[in-house]
Amino acid sequence: MSRFFQSSCGVKQGDPLFSFLFVLSSEFLSRCLKAMVDSDSVLPFSLSRGCPTVSHVAFADDCIIFTQGDKNSLKWLLHFLELYQKGSGKKINFAKSSLFFPRKSSRGHIASIESLTGMCKFSILMTYLGCLIFIRIKSNTIFEPLVTKVRNVLNIRIRNSFPLEASLS
Question: PANTHER family recorded for this chain (predicted)?
């Protein structure tokens, strides 16, 4: 069996080979995540008993990974992601990565998972691909500043269009 070839100059974005290698490494990531779930190394997320489980969702160069959040699953997952980074040359930006916890999670549990992963708790509002994502918050609370601003602008325009002196005469 022959040894692997050595690359002398690398593949850059725009190179015809780049897209193929990107898809290949993304497919490898997806299959490995599925294999870890199938082998019970990582416990996938499920809404409730009887519902299908979800381990990950991928779109373009983003991947959202769903787990039960137990420490064993996270350790396996972090170990795999470290190996994946080394093998693929892709870097995971943990500063842009977030964790989401159920309402009943204790502060101690959240702190220990944040410490283990180096990631922060998911904020209530965030954008993904330019779309605002809401989590357990009433829409009137989110849009209240916008509604107030529009009302103020409309009130100013109405007052300017119908001055008080003109309506009295």
Answer: OS12G0587133 PROTEIN, REVERSE TRANSCRIPTASE ZINC-BINDING DOMAIN-CONTAINING PROTEIN-RELATED-RELATED
Cβ neighbors of 122 (< 8 A, separation 6 or more) are 98, 99, 100, 101, 135
Contact 115, 128 (CB under 8 A): no
Q: Which of 73, 27, 78, 72 is nearest to 53 (CA)?
A: 73
Return the amino acid letter for 72: N
Q: What is the pTM of this model?
A: 0.62
**What percent helix, strand, coil does the chain show, rounded to 5?**
45, 15, 40
- All residues at 6 or more sequence positions from 66 whose CB lies less than 8 Å from its CB, including other chains: 44, 45, 54, 55, 56, 57
Please answer whether residues 99 and 113 qualify as being in contact, where contact means their C-beta atoms are separated by less than 8 angstroms.
yes
For every residue of 63-83, DSSP letters joined together read EEE-----HHHHHHHHHHHHH
> Rounded mean pLDDT of the chain?
78
For residue 63, the cross-strand partners are 58
Calpha distance 120→113 (Å, rounded): 9
Q: Kindly report the backbone phi and psi dihedral angles of residue 14, in degrees, each rounded to the nearest multiple of 5, phi listed first.
A: 105, -25
Q: What is the DSSP-derived secondary structure letter of residue 14?
A: T
Q: How confident is the model at residue 160 (pLDDT cuts 50, 70, 90)?
A: confident
